[in-house]
Every structure is written in structure tokens, then in C-alpha cells.
Amino acid sequence: RMRRWQVECRPEIDTFTPGLLALYESLKPSEEHKSKQNQLVDSLTKSVSKEWPDAQLHLYGSCANSFGTSHSDVDVCLEMETGTESTAEALLKLADVLRSDNFDNVEAITSARVPIVRMSDPASGFSCDICINNLFAVANTKLLKDYAQIDQRLLQLAFLVKHWAKLRGVNETYRGTLSSYAYVLMCINFLQLREPKILPCLQAMEQTFTMNVDGTECAYFDEVHHLQDFGADNKESIAELLWAFFHYWAFDHDYRRDVISVRMGNTISKQEKNWTTRVGNDRHLMCIEDPFETGHDLGRVVDRQTLRILREEFERAAGVLQYNDDPCVTLFEPYD
Ligand code: ATP
Ligand code: MG
């Protein structure tokens, strides 16, 4: 595939910015949504503390990283001593407790990479994933939240990309496409690579926050209120950035060679990570390095067929923004 560095977006691209921003506003969760979420956390806290009085509840994922929409689930991490009990045993016990407290559809999924209890809350209708002692998720939630406070274009871009991915059917890890978390990392890395930069690389700066998770130091600069003007020299609009994002993933990213790394604020080579051959189920065809669990490739779920689907979708999206008369509608047409 030829690299098309010279391609520029259509001159009138900015006329689509108001429509995209209106869509972004409509995706943000309402106050009512947030208060229902808090009620769910309260009732969950009550249930859990009966069995584990010292357990601490952390929200993670999009209900806490500021990338949540009104359709997002609620992700909760319990930090607690499990004693001699394994995490799986604790999750099974938790599932019993939640069932007896009348939560719906309670199911312990103990075979997943990160074992969870999934359930739904009859009061709010929200679905909720609960994990135990997965503090990497708590750390990366804070990292994403801090990035979101530096330049508002990150939230705008990521909401639109997540919305697009859900509607186009490419946000399903169990079918070989990417998680919401992976898409947000792609957005952050993309904005780190703009000229001039829109986002810094917080992990390459002075460490003002550190959290040790299972022997791994999760450290970065978290005084983001000092970085409010960081992206000010870059005047690109959200329409331009959305087009450039899709264009990058359709035509410019070197899938054979590169790994995107929010940790380095750059792309790095598969070679230096030893991600050049398939190991077990990790195919490393599309490589997205987790910022803290650096051995973890968020693109590991992608296979040859889904990589082709993803690239076709990126290409379609770039094309729609480039040529379509009504891109704000066409871009998000559900795939069926
Ligand atoms: P959504 O709005 O779609 O629910 P989300 O950010 O909550 O978006 P989830 O897929 O529910 O995304 O994941 C919740 C959190 O779990 C992520 O924010 C991240 O902290 C963690 N996580 C999800 N997938 C992975 C993964 N493959 N590897 C590591 N952490 C992950
Ligand atoms: Mg979630």
C-alpha cells in the first residue's frame, strides 16, 4: 500500500465541526445518569461491606476516566484482602452476595484475562462489571482522566471515535476488534504526534504521581493544571483531526513495523518489543502498547481478517469525511 503523506483534507472540512461538536455534546452523560451511577455505587458498597468490611470500592473505566457516554457500563474494582481465598473464589462468593441482594443477571466470569462478576442494577438498568484487586485498571483510569484535562479536543475526538466504532461494529474484542480503552489510547497517541503537539507525554515528564501495582511502578506527571495551554499552538479543528485520525490509521500507520506507545509519546518498533512473531494467541498484527502493563498488546485480539475489516472501516471513514455531502450522518451509519 502506498503511503500518501501528501494528501490533505478538503478545504471546507471545518464546516462540519459544529455538527460534530453537537453530536459530541449529545453523547455526554447527563446529570441524571451520573446520579443514578452514584446510587448504584452506594448500594453496591452496602452489599460488599457486609461480607468484606474493609473492602474499598474504586470506579474505573469510562465512568471514571471521563470518556463515558450515556451508554457506557459501570466498571468497579474492589480492593481487598482475599486471604487464602483465590480471586476466583472471592468472585463466586461476591456473585452469591449480589444475587441475594436482588441484583439481576449476576454472572461470575472467572476465565477471562481479568476475571469479573457481571450484573445489572434493577434500579438504574445499568450493567456493571466488578473485578477484584485489578489496580492497573485504576491507574490507567487516572492516566486517561488526566490526559483528558489537558486539551478538550481529546475528549471530543475520543467520543466521536468510540461512537463510530460502536455503530460500525468494530468495538467488540470478543470478535477480534478493539476495546474502547484501545481506541482512547489511539486518540491520545495521535494527538501526541500532531505538529505542533496537542498532548504531551506525561510518562516522560517529572513523576509527580506514582502507584506501585504488583511490583510495577505506574508513574507520571499528574499536575495537569499546569498544562492547560499545552496544545494552544495547534489550531486544528475537530473535523480536521477526526479526518486525520482515520487517514493515519487507513494509510499512514506502518502496521508491519510499528507499535503505538502512549508511554513514549511516539511509535516504537515491534522489533524492540519482541513483538515480531506470534506468541500463543498474541498475533501482534496491530500493536497498541498498554501504558503501564508494557508487555500487554491491546491489539492482540486482532487477526488477519479483523485487521482487514478495521482498515477498511478506517478507510471508509476517511473517505466519508473527505468526499461525502453529509459526513456527520454517513460516518455513523450503523453497519449491518
Ligand atoms: P465503554 O464506555 O465502552 O464502557 P470503557 O473505557 O469503560 O468504555 P471497557 O472496555 O468497559 O471500556 O473497559 C473498562 C476499563 O478496563 C478500561 O478503561 C481499562 O482501564 C480497562 N481495560 C479494558 N480493556 C482492557 C485491556 N484489554 N487491557 C487492559 N485494561 C483494559
Ligand atoms: Mg466500561
If classified by CATH, what would the architecture of the largest domain be? Orthogonal Bundle
What would the principal axes of the Cα set say about the shape? globular
Overall SS class: alpha+beta
Class of the largest domain in CATH? Mainly Alpha
Give a quick account of the main beta sheet: strands, pairing sense, barrel closure: 5 strands, mixed
Largest sheet strand order: 1-2-5-4-3
Per CATH, what is the topology of the largest domain?
Poly(a)-polymerase, middle domain
The number of domains is 2
Our estimate of the beta-strand percent is 5-15%
Q: Give the assembly state of these chains.
A: single chain
Structure description:
- With 336 residues, this protein is of the alpha+beta class.
- It has 2 domains: 197 residues, Poly(a)-polymerase, middle domain (Orthogonal Bundle); 106 residues, Beta Polymerase, domain 2 (2-Layer Sandwich).
- The chain is 39% helix and 15% strand.
- The chain is built from 10 helices and 10 strands.
- It has a 5-stranded mixed β-sheet with strand order 1-2-5-4-3, sandwiched between helices. A 3-stranded mixed β-sheet has the order 9-8-10.
- Helix 1 packs across helix 5, helix 5 crosses helix 6 and helix 7 runs antiparallel to helix 9.
- The longest helix is centred in the first third of the chain and has 21 residues.
- The protein is globular, with a radius of gyration of 20 Å.
- Adenosine-5'-triphosphate binds next to helix 4 and helix 6.
